[in-house]
Write a structure and sequence with these properties.
The complex is a heterodimer of chains A (163) and B (220). Chain A is an all-alpha fold. Chain A contains eight helices and no strands. The N and C termini of chain B lie far apart (62 Å). The chains are: A mainly alpha (163), B alpha+beta (220).
């Protein structure tokens, strides 16, 4: 990978990586460390990225590194920690490449509040769905159903108008 | 569709979002490998779940954004740090240590200096089977060259033993790349580490080792 390509990828997805890290860790300095770690991984070992949209891959790597940080901080019991996301991308990640943050935020805001909260806690909260159920007071089955319904609605909204 | 399978489809969605525990991840991973319907649902919802990350791209203001970009671009200005690794083992180790150091920002880098000037004279090296442990300043790194690939649901986990302690404490989990190569910077400070061990554990890590460690290396 040459420097120009790297810089273009950073310009496109650096803010996404920072945002994921900041929302998960809640600290600017820690989030900046994650950004540097993730992009230095891309630079020094570009073969670690195999397929799918590179922005999606960067976001997953960032999220997994944040989980490591949270695990070391021991801010919550290990049983409440979610497993890392698999690095491989989905078969069809074209939607990711086309999207901008504003549109995703609007799509999330358009979800029923209970679905949006479950999805945001699940992605950025660094907790399992069981912990989401505990924190929200909703039954576990309800949380799973909300997450599935919300992701399906997101898919419809982002996919249907996304080309 | 029966209720049991509908419940599995719900769990597939949670798996796509990354909010399942390690046991549930193993169950879903095994199921979608043999169930086309759940596999399709996973693929469809994973793209949506990944897109959620984009909603976080509004957390950085212009000033901090420019400063952070400068920091990241400066960190890659060591020419071909990783590409030296197959040529000279010692340079390889040094370069990796430099790269790892830069990741965590404690190493003051001057872009004008050559790589050879970045010898970590103070770094202590502890050979272990398949790699090295490097201690430099306040940081400890695990550098492994040829770790075997692990089956799904298993990860490598580092353990640290504090000076004078009788039991190890859990540290970071990691997996090597396709060639068995990995560099890990331990979050704990070097002063708090008397020995380092690595074992194979379930995804998500363990609170105490569940398998015999690959090695236990004192850092004296």
């Amino acid at each position: 990978m040459d420097r120009g390509t790297f810089e273009a990828i950073y310009d496109r997805y650096g803010r996404v990586v920072y945002g994921v890290a900041f929302r998960m860790l809640g600290e600017q300095a820690a989030a900046e460390d994650i950004v540097q770690a993730v992009f230095l991984t891309l630079w020094s070992r570009p073969d670690a990225y195999h397929e799918g949209n590179i922005g999606g891959w960067l976001a997953r790597v960032a999220r997994n590194r944040c989980l490591d940080v949270l695990r070391v901080r021991k801010t919550r019991p290990e049983a409440e920690m979610p497993v890392e996301l698999v690095a491989e991308g989905a078969v069809d990640e074209g939607v990711f490449a086309r999207l901008e943050g504003d549109r995703v935020r609007k799509a999330l805001a358009a979800l029923p509040e209970d679905q949006r909260i479950a999805i945001e806690m699940g992605f950025f909260g660094g907790v399992t769905h069981a912990e989401i159920a505990t924190r929200t007071g909703a039954p576990l089955g309800t949380i799973k159903t909300r997450i599935r319904a919300g992701l399906r609605r997101l898919r419809d909204q982002l996919g249907a108008t996304g080309a | 569709m029966n209720d049991t399978h509908d419940a599995m489809l719900d769990l597939v969605a949670v798996y796509a979002l990354g909010a399942v525990n390690a046991d549930e991840a193993r169950i879903v991973s095994a199921h979608i490998a043999v169930c086309p319907e759940c596999r399709r649902e996973y693929e469809a919802l994973k793209a949506s779940a990944d897109a959620v990350a984009l909603a976080a791209d509004d957390q950085l203001d212009a000033h901090d954004g420019a400063r952070l970009k400068e920091r990241v671009m400066r960190s890659i200005d060591i020419p071909n740090v990783a590409r030296r690794r197959t040529a000279r083992p010692l340079a390889f180790i040094t370069a990796l240590a430099v790269a790892a150091a830069l990741v965590f920002g404690f190493f003051t880098y001057n872009a004008e200096r050559r790589l050879n000037d970045l010898q970590i004279a103070s770094a202590q090296q502890y050979p272990v089977p398949g790699g090295e442990i490097l201690k430099n300043g306040a940081r400890v790194y695990i550098v492994m060259h040829e770790l075997p690939a692990l089956p799904a649901g298993r990860v490598y986990q580092a353990w640290t033993l504090a000076p004078g302690a009788k039991s190890v404490a859990p540290s970071i989990t990691f997996v090597p790349d396709a060639r068995g190569f990995v560099v890990v910077s331990l979050p704990q400070s070097a002063a708090s580490i008397g020995a380092v061990a690595v074992s194979v554990e379930p995804s998500g890590g363990s609170l105490t080792p569940t398998t015999k460690p690959l090695f236990v290396q004192p850092l004296t």
